[in-house]
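lol ok so funny story. i was supposed to be doing the assay writeup but got distracted and ended up predicting the structure for this chain instead. priorities right. anyway since i did it might as well share w the group, maybe its usefull for someone
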Amino acid sequence: MSASGGTKAIVAALAANLAIAASKFVAFLFSGSSSMLAESVHSLADSGNQGLLLLGGKKAQREATPQHPFGYGRERYIYAFLVSIVLFSVGGMFAIYEGYEKIKHPHEIEHWYWPVGVLVFAIIAESFSFRTAIKESNVLRGRQSWKEFVRHAKAPELPVVLLEDLGALVGLILALGGVGLALATGDGVWDGIGTLCIGVLLIVIAIVLAVETKSLLLGEAAGLDAVQKIEAAIVDGDTVTHVIHMRTLHLGPEELLVAAKVAVQHDDTATEVANAINAAESRIREAVPIARVIYLEPDIFSETEAAKGADREATPGGPAQHDTAGH
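and the output, tada:
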């Protein structure tokens, strides 16, 4: 997996979650706190999440085959989608079930120092993991807001880890609040309420991630900045005079397909057109290195057709469209 996949953030989150899951489960055994049990399952599910993301990154590196000629780059999207649908939802539903049972059959928390101590330790560990995810994300985020970054990132791993760590921190605070209120009031119902809140939080995160990764699975275009660079690279002002229309598609986070109908001079020879197209492909790859699959079709620009506006079925068609990419 490339650096942009956030491998460092995934590994940091995996290490933190495995340690935290073990400590939470020990705290549950000593205290009987349902919040602790829900949080231990949450951390274990998060560990599985990171394992799936790493597996998806590994599978995505396979070479293209005759059956899959564009490669396996979308494996990363598939595994991110599995994370959002299966593990988050399972963790969320389990927490809701545990919270309901605790509210229905409350009991006093024993050995309170176990859950409190573990929660404090977990908050510290998750904070370091979250800090790593933020640092890795800032390399790619640029001037985007965090909302825009999560919505428009082509590499799914960092948004998943960011939301996981954020959810984990908020969940830990909720668990600490539930345990604290249960101890202060002597009423175990508060522990159950905290567990219910954790479950709702996990399901909300699952829905957000499912929506975002679904868009990646369907196939997203390159961002507007990349589209503009590609169009500028295609036109040489001599043989290639216009981009009639163009489509881009992410085959994976670092693999882009470019297909365009380009206008050439009507009196150019076949050799001149072929050389111009080859040169345009080289310029595209230099301007946008992830453009690995490029198809350029030469045509004669028609002022009459161009006046009709952009038309994806037109031949030779109108001007290029500038749809912005995003979910």
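Residues 69 and 91 are 37 Å apart (CA to CA). The longest strand covers residues 240-252.
back to the writeup now i swear
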